[in-house]
Amino acid sequence: MRRILLAAICASLPVALGATVLVPIEFRELVTVSTAIVHGRVTDVRAEWIDGRRAIETVVTLDAREYLKGNLGGTVPVRVPGGQIGRYRTIFVGAPALHAGDDLVLFLRGDRIVGLNQGAFRVVADARTGTPMVVSPIVMATGGDAPERIVRGDVRRAPVSVDAFRDTVRQILAAGAR
User: Fold this and answer.
1) Does residue 5 sit in helix, strand or coil?
2) What's the number of domains the chain is made of?
3) For residue 167, what are the domain limits?
4) Looking at the domain assignment, is residue 8 inside a domain?
5) 47 beta partners
6) Is residue 10 a part of any domain in this protein?
7) What is the DSSP secondary structure assignment for residue 145, as one 8-state letter?
C-alpha cells in the first residue's frame, strides 16, 4: 500500500520539461544580429563538461582567414551545445556537428553561433572547377508567413562562390548603415 501511495505522490509532482524551438531566421537578420562573421577552418574540436557535469558542450577552435564583419582575432573559440566525452553524450537538436578541417563561414554573437546550424555555412570546392562555394544550411526563412518548403534542386539553395557570398553580406551591411 505504501508503494502505491508513494508512486501516486511522485506521479502528481510537477515535472520540468525543456524543449528546443528553432525559428528560421532570414539571411538579412542573420547578418544584422551577428557581432562577427568569420570565414575560417576548424583546427580543434574539444568537448567539456558544463553545468556541474549535467551536460556537455563542444569548444570549436576556428583559424580565421577573413572577417566579413567584426574581428575576434586570428584564432576564434566557438562554443556549441552538445558533444561527447567517453560514453557520455549530450545531443542538442539544431546544433551543428563540426569537425577538424571543416571550412566554414560562421555568424557569431560572442562565442556562440547565431541560430545554431542556421549560422554555420559550409564552404566546399565545386566538383567541376574547384572554386570554393558556400552552401546554405537546410533551414532558412524566406521572409513570408508560411513555413519554408524544402525542395530538392531548388535554385535558391544553390551554392554560391565565396566572393558572391561576401558581396551579399557587404551589401546588407551597407544597406543597414544607411
Assistant:
1) helix
2) 1
3) 20-177
4) no
5) 58
6) no
7) S
Q: Is residue 157 part of a domain?
A: yes
Comparing CA positions, the residue from 163, 178, 151, 149 lying closest to residue 24 is 149
> If residue 63 lies in a helix (H) or strand (E), which one and from where to where?
strand 55-69
- Does residue 133 form part of some domain? yes
Longest dimension (CA), the chain: 75
55: domain CATH number is 2.40.50
Find all residues with CB under 8 Å of 61, minimum gap 6, and list them: 42, 43, 44, 45, 46, 75, 76, 77, 78
The tens digit of pLDDT for each residue in 97-136 reads 999 999 999 999 999 999 989 999 999 999 899 999 999 8
User: How many Å apart are CA 22 and CA 116, to the nearest integer?
Assistant: 8
CB proximity list for 54: less than 8 A, separation 6 or greater: none
Residue tagged 566572393 (cell numbers): 163
Q: Which of 125, 113, 121 is nearest to 169 (CA)?
A: 121
